[in-house]
Design goal:
With 400 residues, this protein is of the alpha/beta class. The protein has 14 helices and 14 strands. Helix 4 links the parallel strand 3 and strand 4.
Length: 400
């Protein structure tokens, strides 16, 4: 089938890259040791602090999010160290696997993939750890495989109540710049992220935002590392440079993406995602389908995982959507493969894009003979027309 118009990329990352960012990257390659690049480097390093909401350093790697995971581990932890992690979904499980490859002893709190990390369970494990063998608590903020957001600020409070010295390492790969997050205010020691989600860039940049406590831990840590070593990178970053060749054109795009986020205002970015997510959930409920996340306090603002009715395959449904409407939806991963599809609503995304997405889903539910009620698109529309919408008369007044 030949499709016209624009492909709808509605997976929860990589996300749609704005034209402004694409144009910013469309630059000649420059000398990464010259003064022009040095200024770019200083600009993006400072801009990242605003996005992570930290006064401390943010390390930028030419890497995927998996590389940023590894960097967080090898800088702060040593083989044999014990860490506490929570099974919130596919990506928490992958991070656990990576930790085990570095010979960490992982205490993995079991989960049903429908809820976030539980602060009370973490607190209980830390209180019981009287010898302070646990060196770090490692949590995925937004589990991209399930549409569940863990309450990091409450986990920080749980660690503090336990009076435990463990580091707090948080994966914000799918949440940064889309969901409220405070590296400093929430007492996070290492925040891991990457470029292709809320930062609206192609894949290729990984990030570690680090606290003073984490820097001290890294200084004392004897684990072998070179490419990922924070201290050598931070030393070069003082002059806007890196100890190896950086991803120069991606950094041009990063500067533009940060400018876009600051122009909108991060609080407005977070509010926009909350509203689009609420509209999506309204559609799912109107279709009489089930949302995978079971705790309303943990609903993800950046994606919604939808459970398929028994006897219906989510991957077949996604094929119907792609073939007929040229739209990509997120697949179910590992334990939920074939059982859920995921609607991404993050990054460079607005109300009309969401309505097109939901219209495609609703039409495909009919084509794939999935049991449902009609009216999801209308339900979402009512949410989007709610009290936060700006009436035309008010817009005219603002223009006048």
């Amino acid at each position: 089938m030949v499709h016209t118009g624009k492909h709808f990329l509605q997976i929860p990352g990589p996300t749609n890259v704005p034209d402004r960012v694409l144009r910013a990257m469309d630059m000649p390659t420059i000398d990464h040791r010259g003064p022009e690049f040095a200024q770019l480097g200083l600009d993006v390093l400072e801009g990242c602090k605003a996005v992570f909401r930290t006064k401390n350093p943010v390390v930028i790697y030419p890497s995927s999010g998996t590389g940023a995971w590894e960097a967080a581990i090898v800088n702060t932890l040593s083989p044999g160290d014990k860490v506490l992690m929570a099974e919130t979904g596919h990506f928490a499980t992958l991070w656990k696997g990576l930790a085990e490859k570095f010979k960490l002893e992982v205490d993995f709190l079991p989960g049903d993939w429908r809820r976030g990390a539980q602060p009370a369970e973490i607190e209980a494990r830390l209180v019981a750890d009287r010898e302070h063998r646990i060196k770090a608590v490692m949590v995925v903020h937004n589990e991209t495989s399930t549409g569940v957001t863990s309450r990091i600020h409450e986990i920080r409070k749980a660690i503090d109540r336990a009076k435990h010295p463990a580091l707090l390492l948080v994966d914000t790969i799918s949440s940064l710049a889309s969901i409220e997050y405070e590296h400093d205010a929430w007492g996070v020691d290492v925040t891991v992220s990457c470029s292709q989600k809320g930062l609206m860039l192609p894949p290729g940049l990984g990030f570690n935002a680090v606290s003073e406590k984490a820097l001290l831990a890294a200084k004392a840590n004897q684990t072998s590392r070179s490419y990922w070593d924070w201290h050598e990178i931070l030393q070069q970053n003082k002059n806007g440079s890196w100890p190896y060749t950086p991803a120069t054109n991606l950094l041009y795009g990063l500067k533009e993406a940060i400018d876009m986020l600051m122009e909108e205002g991060l609080d407005n970015v977070f509010a926009r995602h909350l509203k689009l997510a609420a509209a999506t959930r309204a559609a799912v409920r109107a279709w009489n389908l089930e949302i995978l996340c079971q705790d309303p306090e943990e609903y993800s603002p950046i994606l919604t995982a939808v459970v398929m009715p028994a006897g219906h395959d989510a991957d077949y449904f996604r094929e119907v959507v792609l073939k007929n409407y040229d739209m990509s939806l997120g697949a179910g991963l590992s334990k939920v493969k074939g059982k859920v599809f995921r609607i991404g609503h993050l990054g460079h995304f607005n109300e009309l894009m969401l309505m097109g997405t939901l219209s495609g889903v609703e039409m495909a539910l009919d084509l794939a003979s999935v049991p449902h009620r009609a009216g999801g698109v209308l339900a979402a529309m009512e949410v989007l027309k709610g009290k936060d919408a700006i009436p035309l008369s008010a817009r005219r007044s603002a223009v006048a």
